[in-house]
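> Could you send the Mitotic-spindle organizing protein 1 prediction when you get a chance?

Sure thing. Input:
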Amino acid sequence: MDRTAAQNARESLDLAFSISNFLQTGLDRHTLSILIALCEHGVNPEALAAVVKELRREAAALHQHQDQS
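Output:
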């Protein structure tokens, strides 16, 4: 990747991360970059959103179970 392309990619990720924070998605920069890359490779964004939601539900249930133990 040349310098200009790398700079454009960085700026695009910065913008996406700013929007993500504004929308209070709770996604960190690294996770967001992975999700964007998956979308760029043809993964359905709605399916990814469903997976993220399910993983968050599972993590919350696990934490709740651990707190009760």
